[in-house]
Amino acid sequence: MAETLRELVEAKKLIANPTDWSTQGRCLDLKLPLMIGGLIEEQFFFRATAIASLPDEQVVFQLEYHGLRIPGGTGPLCRLEWRPKGVHNNKGKGPPEFRFMDQAGTHLHSFEDNWCEKNGALLRDNLPVARPVPQPIQGFTECLQVVGNLFRINNIDVVKPPEWVLSFGW
Hints:
Blueprint: H1 5-10, E1 14-15, E2 22-24, E3 27-36, E4 39-51, E5 59-65, E6 75-82, E7 88-89, E8 102-103, E9 107-109, H2 111-114, E10 115-116, E11 121-122, E12 131-132, H3 140-151
Antiparallel strand pairs: 1-3, 2-3, 3-4, 4-5, 5-6, 6-9, 7-8, 9-12, 10-11
Protein backbone atom coordinates (compact mmCIF):
# COMPACT_ATOMS: atom_id res chain seq x y z
CA MET A 1 0.00 0.00 0.00
CA ALA A 2 1.21 3.48 -0.85
CA GLU A 3 2.15 5.63 2.14
CA THR A 4 2.39 9.03 0.39
CA LEU A 5 0.59 10.89 -2.36
CA ARG A 6 3.83 10.87 -4.35
CA GLU A 7 3.90 7.06 -4.14
CA LEU A 8 0.33 6.92 -5.48
CA VAL A 9 1.23 9.11 -8.45
CA GLU A 10 4.58 7.51 -9.25
CA ALA A 11 3.53 3.86 -8.88
CA LYS A 12 2.64 1.69 -11.84
CA LYS A 13 -1.12 1.29 -11.77
CA LEU A 14 -3.91 -0.78 -13.26
CA ILE A 15 -7.56 0.12 -13.68
CA ALA A 16 -9.37 -2.32 -11.40
CA ASN A 17 -12.96 -2.35 -12.68
CA PRO A 18 -13.47 -0.82 -16.12
CA THR A 19 -16.99 0.53 -16.61
CA ASP A 20 -18.80 2.67 -19.13
CA TRP A 21 -19.03 6.44 -19.04
CA SER A 22 -22.03 7.84 -17.19
CA THR A 23 -24.14 10.68 -18.53
CA GLN A 24 -25.29 13.54 -16.35
CA GLY A 25 -27.10 16.07 -18.50
CA ARG A 26 -24.65 17.07 -21.21
CA CYS A 27 -21.64 15.90 -19.18
CA LEU A 28 -19.91 12.56 -19.51
CA ASP A 29 -18.06 11.15 -16.51
CA LEU A 30 -15.83 8.16 -15.86
CA LYS A 31 -14.50 7.25 -12.40
CA LEU A 32 -12.45 4.07 -12.11
CA PRO A 33 -10.71 2.57 -9.05
CA LEU A 34 -6.98 1.93 -9.36
CA MET A 35 -4.79 -0.96 -8.23
CA ILE A 36 -1.14 -0.83 -7.20
CA GLY A 37 0.76 -4.05 -6.66
CA GLY A 38 -2.40 -6.13 -7.07
CA LEU A 39 -4.36 -4.25 -4.38
CA ILE A 40 -7.11 -1.70 -4.93
CA GLU A 41 -6.04 1.57 -3.31
CA GLU A 42 -8.92 2.87 -1.23
CA GLN A 43 -10.40 6.13 -2.55
CA PHE A 44 -7.84 6.39 -5.42
CA PHE A 45 -9.35 6.88 -8.88
CA PHE A 46 -8.70 7.60 -12.53
CA ARG A 47 -11.33 10.13 -13.60
CA ALA A 48 -12.25 11.51 -17.00
CA THR A 49 -14.86 14.10 -17.92
CA ALA A 50 -16.11 15.45 -21.22
CA ILE A 51 -18.98 17.35 -22.81
CA ALA A 52 -21.18 14.98 -24.85
CA SER A 53 -21.65 17.45 -27.72
CA LEU A 54 -17.94 18.37 -28.03
CA PRO A 55 -16.15 15.33 -29.49
CA ASP A 56 -12.40 15.41 -28.92
CA GLU A 57 -12.54 18.78 -27.13
CA GLN A 58 -12.52 19.89 -23.52
CA VAL A 59 -11.69 16.43 -22.17
CA VAL A 60 -10.14 16.21 -18.71
CA PHE A 61 -8.24 13.25 -17.25
CA GLN A 62 -6.99 13.14 -13.69
CA LEU A 63 -5.77 11.01 -10.81
CA GLU A 64 -7.81 11.67 -7.66
CA TYR A 65 -7.36 10.68 -4.03
CA HIS A 66 -10.31 11.12 -1.65
CA GLY A 67 -9.09 9.14 1.34
CA LEU A 68 -7.98 10.27 4.77
CA ARG A 69 -5.22 7.70 5.37
CA ILE A 70 -2.52 9.56 3.42
CA PRO A 71 -1.76 13.17 4.47
CA GLY A 72 -1.17 16.02 2.02
CA GLY A 73 -4.58 16.77 0.57
CA THR A 74 -7.53 15.16 -1.14
CA GLY A 75 -8.92 15.68 -4.62
CA PRO A 76 -7.00 15.86 -7.90
CA LEU A 77 -3.31 14.86 -7.78
CA CYS A 78 -2.51 15.54 -11.44
CA ARG A 79 -4.56 16.42 -14.52
CA LEU A 80 -4.29 16.57 -18.30
CA GLU A 81 -6.67 18.93 -20.09
CA TRP A 82 -7.01 18.02 -23.76
CA ARG A 83 -8.09 20.74 -26.17
CA PRO A 84 -9.71 22.97 -23.53
CA LYS A 85 -12.02 25.79 -24.60
CA GLY A 86 -10.83 28.25 -21.96
CA VAL A 87 -7.50 29.81 -21.08
CA HIS A 88 -5.97 30.10 -17.63
CA ASN A 89 -2.76 31.54 -16.27
CA ASN A 90 -0.26 30.07 -13.80
CA LYS A 91 0.03 33.51 -12.24
CA GLY A 92 3.34 33.67 -10.38
CA LYS A 93 3.38 30.01 -9.36
CA GLY A 94 5.45 27.08 -10.52
CA PRO A 95 8.76 26.74 -12.33
CA PRO A 96 10.09 30.14 -13.50
CA GLU A 97 9.69 29.34 -17.21
CA PHE A 98 5.95 28.70 -16.73
CA ARG A 99 5.03 31.55 -14.38
CA PHE A 100 2.44 33.96 -15.82
CA MET A 101 2.15 31.71 -18.89
CA ASP A 102 -1.30 31.44 -20.48
CA GLN A 103 -2.40 27.82 -20.92
CA ALA A 104 -4.56 27.81 -24.03
CA GLY A 105 -3.94 24.39 -25.57
CA THR A 106 -3.54 20.88 -24.21
CA HIS A 107 -1.68 21.08 -20.92
CA LEU A 108 -0.61 19.08 -17.88
CA HIS A 109 -1.08 19.96 -14.22
CA SER A 110 1.62 17.66 -12.87
CA PHE A 111 1.89 16.48 -9.29
CA GLU A 112 5.51 17.65 -9.22
CA ASP A 113 4.71 21.23 -10.30
CA ASN A 114 1.87 21.48 -7.75
CA TRP A 115 3.51 19.85 -4.73
CA CYS A 116 4.88 22.04 -1.93
CA GLU A 117 7.62 20.09 -0.19
CA LYS A 118 7.83 22.66 2.61
CA ASN A 119 4.14 22.17 3.53
CA GLY A 120 4.00 18.48 2.59
CA ALA A 121 0.85 19.17 0.59
CA LEU A 122 -0.47 20.13 -2.82
CA LEU A 123 -0.82 23.81 -3.61
CA ARG A 124 -4.25 25.31 -3.01
CA ASP A 125 -6.66 26.20 -5.80
CA ASN A 126 -7.06 22.87 -7.60
CA LEU A 127 -3.62 22.27 -9.15
CA PRO A 128 -2.97 25.87 -10.23
CA VAL A 129 0.31 25.24 -12.11
CA ALA A 130 0.27 23.82 -15.63
CA ARG A 131 2.70 23.33 -18.48
CA PRO A 132 1.96 22.83 -22.18
CA VAL A 133 1.99 19.33 -23.63
CA PRO A 134 4.43 19.75 -26.53
CA GLN A 135 3.28 16.89 -28.74
CA PRO A 136 0.15 17.26 -30.87
CA ILE A 137 -2.46 14.66 -29.95
CA GLN A 138 -4.66 13.35 -32.75
CA GLY A 139 -7.84 11.78 -31.43
CA PHE A 140 -9.16 10.28 -28.22
CA THR A 141 -7.29 6.97 -28.46
CA GLU A 142 -3.94 8.71 -28.87
CA CYS A 143 -4.76 11.05 -26.01
CA LEU A 144 -5.58 8.08 -23.81
CA GLN A 145 -2.16 6.56 -24.59
CA VAL A 146 -0.43 9.82 -23.62
CA VAL A 147 -2.44 9.92 -20.37
CA GLY A 148 -1.62 6.27 -19.65
CA ASN A 149 2.10 7.00 -20.02
CA LEU A 150 2.00 10.20 -17.94
CA PHE A 151 -0.15 8.68 -15.18
CA ARG A 152 1.61 5.28 -15.32
CA ILE A 153 -1.61 3.33 -15.94
CA ASN A 154 -0.51 0.15 -17.70
CA ASN A 155 -3.94 -1.00 -18.90
CA ILE A 156 -5.35 2.36 -20.04
CA ASP A 157 -6.57 0.64 -23.20
CA VAL A 158 -9.53 -0.82 -21.21
CA VAL A 159 -11.06 2.68 -21.23
CA LYS A 160 -13.62 3.01 -23.99
CA PRO A 161 -14.14 6.30 -25.84
CA PRO A 162 -17.19 8.22 -24.65
CA GLU A 163 -20.37 8.12 -26.70
CA TRP A 164 -20.36 11.58 -28.21
CA VAL A 165 -23.68 13.16 -29.14
CA LEU A 166 -23.37 14.87 -32.50
CA SER A 167 -25.73 17.77 -33.05
CA PHE A 168 -26.03 19.34 -36.47
CA GLY A 169 -28.29 22.18 -35.34
CA TRP A 170 -30.89 21.71 -38.04
